[in-house]
Every structure is written in C-alpha cells, then in structure tokens.
Design brief:
Blueprint: E1 12-18, H1 32-45, E2 51-53, H2 76-90, E3 94-101, H3 107-117, E4 125-129, H4 134-144, H5 154-164, H6 208-228
Parallel strand pairs: 1-2, 1-3, 3-4
Length: 230
C-alpha cells in the first residue's frame, strides 16, 4: 500500500499478527511461529479486502524459551509499550485495531493488554482475535490419535512441512519423546526439556498432508473471527 491508498475521510480496521523468534527444537526453524502466522494471514486476507493487514511482529514474548540458543525475546513491559505505540500510531484513522498471534506465549499477554489498555483509545476498538479454536484442537487430536504438542512437536512440524518443507525435518522414528506434565508451569521450558520439544504424544505422527489440513482448519478459524468484527 501507498499512503495515497488511504481515504482521509475513512476509518480503517487494522490487523496486526504476532509470531516469535525462538527455539523450536532440532526439527524446526526459530521463525516457525512467524512463518505460520504469515501463512494463515495470507490465506485469510483475500476475503477481507476492507481490512489493512500489517506485517507480522517477529520478536515478541518468548522468555519461556530463555536458555535455548537463538531465542530472542522482549519483556512483557517492552511488548506492552510496542503495542501501545502501534495503537497510538494508528489511532487517528483507525476504527478497530486487532492483534492476533500464532505464538502461544503471547495469548495471555494479549488478553491482559486489551483489558487494561482498550479504554485509553476512546472510540477505537482494541481486540484480541484468536487464530485457532478448541474444535480445531480436537480435530487435530483425533487426526494424530493423541495429544497435540505444546511446542515443536507433531502439529508444528506437520504445519511447517505443509508451509515450506525445505524448512522442516521429519524426526527419525526412533527419536525419543517423553511426557512432560506441564511444560510451561515454571515459564521456563528448559527446566523440563533438554531438546526444546514439549509433545506428550507417545508417537511421531508427522506429515505434510496432516499439516495441510491443520493449516486449512486454522485459516477457517481465523476467518470466522475476522467475520465477527466486519
């Protein structure tokens, strides 16, 4: 877009996706959450030409992966200021500002951000749009015959294979897995996992075909949320 594409008499809805730059174990790149956020938004945005989709924020709240090399994070205080600055930037010509995240570490933060800061912007509605749903989680559990991963396991590997298989590796069948009851209970995954994976499914169930369906389901979830704010 160019600045001349905006109508000075009009108010707009802006959608700001959030990803992450963080370790994703031995089989996925550190940009996984950002790449998948890009893919989901790209699949959805053609249906919502009246919205303005901003670039994905690629360094966000990933402190739970501290200690794994390659992880880059900002504190919640810093992230809050970044989002406030974005909102202040858009406020003069915004009707709605919607944040969405593929990275799970941003979800509780976004809920709190909207609750605490929405009143600052008066008539501009600040929204947290989910990217997935419990219904999709249940379909994924049935597909892989077990729990979905908390991080860097069957679901994320399959989705990345579907998005760009040059960026993902299929785990060897004998690569060990172990159950971690609550991988993020200390907000420090390294307390429980030495390889950065948190996936309690006893088997590796990874495929490009599974990932394609998982992306399709997530895109439909996201479209449904976008329709709510049209």
């Amino acid at each position: 877009m160019k600045t001349t594409d905006f109508d000075p008499k009009k108010k707009y809805t802006f959608v700001i996706p959030m990803g992450a730059t963080e370790q994703h174990g031995p089989f996925l790149p550190m940009g996984t959450d950002s790449f998948l956020a890009d893919r989901i938004v790209r699949e959805a945005e053609a249906e919502f030409r009246e919205f303005v989709f901003l670039p994905t924020l690629r360094i966000t709240c990933s402190q739970e992966h501290e200690g794994f090399m390659g992880t880059v994070w900002v504190t919640k205080a810093t992230m809050t200021q970044i989002l406030l600055d974005i909102c202040h930037s858009l406020h003069p010509y915004a009707e709605k500002i919607a944040f969405t995240s593929f990275h799970g570490g941003n979800l509780a933060f976004l809920d709190a951000f909207v609750t605490e800061n929405a009143p600052i912007f008066g008539g501009v509605r600040i929204i947290h749009l989910p990217m997935g749903s419990e219904e999709t989680e249940e379909k994924m559990r049935k597909m892989i015959d077990g729990p979905t991963d908390a991080h860097a396991g069957n679901v994320e590997i399959s989705m990345m294979l579907a998005d760009d298989e040059s960026l993902a590796k299929v785990p060897p069948a004998n690569y060990p897995k172990r159950v971690i009851e609550d991988a993020f209970s200390t907000n420090h995954l390294q307390d429980f996992s030495t390889d950065g994976i948190a996936d309690n499914n006893p088997k590796w169930v990874v495929s490009k075909e599974n990932g394609t369906k998982m992306i399709e389901w997530t895109v439909e979830d996201f479209k449904r949320e976008l329709r709510k704010i049209v």
